[in-house]
Amino acid sequence: MKNSLIAIIPSAGTGSRACKDSDHEIPKQYRNIAGKPMLIHSIMSLLADSRIKHVIVSVSPQDTWAEYILSGMSKVTIRKYGGSTRFETVRNTINSIDVFDNDWVIIHDAARPGLPISCLKFLIDKCLSSNVVGGLLAIPASNTIKRGIGHKVDHTIDRNGLWLAQTPQMFRVSLLCKALNIASDSGLFTTDESSALELIGLSPIMIRGSIYNMKVTWPEDFEIMEKLI
């Protein structure tokens, strides 16, 4: 179906930063928050908007958790396209799925289970109704930002105009595929999809995100997200 909207959740990482002193056997995206695996919360937040027709969860070839945890979920497909980095996982998946060039794709982090439906709706609305190359959620930087060398301050960065990127990020499939492939050929492995578009001279729009859409990264983030959800 032309001009459809699908979502991809890259889920091939292990989340080593989220572990405490002792290693967890379960990758962080499968650990429970508020009684459900974090990945399920992230999937359900996307499917809350009926315009998203399908969610592809892209895991590593060695993953043994996804099929068990996601068994029986409708509109969800598991693909073992995961690479050694998030960039490779997204690129592998985009290059492998069977869609029309003019379709839209949303990329969302597995570790952002608190995505508000209002933020997702506004992002989709703006991308579909405006003549834009795509967009992403982001929040203005509110803290003083330091650049460090080791554990010492090198200098303070002016936070005016600085935004903290979030996901979802939404783009035309053909455009994102082109940008990711060019970045890869240039040896530039970006940490989000907007960066790849920026490398080819394009400027996605930024939609105000939410603190509830925080990324679960550090051990204490699980407790914070548990309370938020």
UniProtKB/TrEMBL annotation:
Keyword Repeat on entry: no
Keywords attached to this entry: Isoprene biosynthesis, Nucleotidyltransferase, Transferase
Site (Transition state stabilizer): R17, K28
Superkingdom of origin organism: Bacteria
Function: Catalyzes the formation of 4-diphosphocytidyl-2-C-methyl-D-erythritol from CTP and 2-C-methyl-D-erythritol 4-phosphate (MEP).
GO molecular function, one term: 2-C-methyl-D-erythritol 4-phosphate cytidylyltransferase activity
GO biological process: isopentenyl diphosphate biosynthetic process, methylerythritol 4-phosphate pathway
PANTHER family membership: 2-C-METHYL-D-ERYTHRITOL 4-PHOSPHATE CYTIDYLYLTRANSFERASE, CHLOROPLASTIC (PTHR32125)
Gene that this polypeptide is encoded by: ispD
The protein's enzyme class: transferase
InterPro entries registered for this protein in UniProt: IspD (IPR001228), IspD/TarI (IPR034683), IspD/TarI_cytidylyltransf_bact (IPR050088), ISPD_synthase_CS (IPR018294), Nucleotide-diphossugar_trans (IPR029044)
Record site: Positions MEP for the nucleophilic attack: R159, K215
Catalytic activity annotation: 2-C-methyl-D-erythritol 4-phosphate + CTP + H(+) = 4-CDP-2-C-methyl-D-erythritol + diphosphate
EC assignment: 2.7.7.60
Pfam families from the UniProt entry: IspD
Protein name: 2-C-methyl-D-erythritol 4-phosphate cytidylyltransferase
Protein family per UniProt: Belongs to the IspD/TarI cytidylyltransferase family. IspD subfamily.
Record pathway: Isoprenoid biosynthesis; isopentenyl diphosphate biosynthesis via DXP pathway; isopentenyl diphosphate from 1-deoxy-D-xylulose 5-phosphate: step 2/6
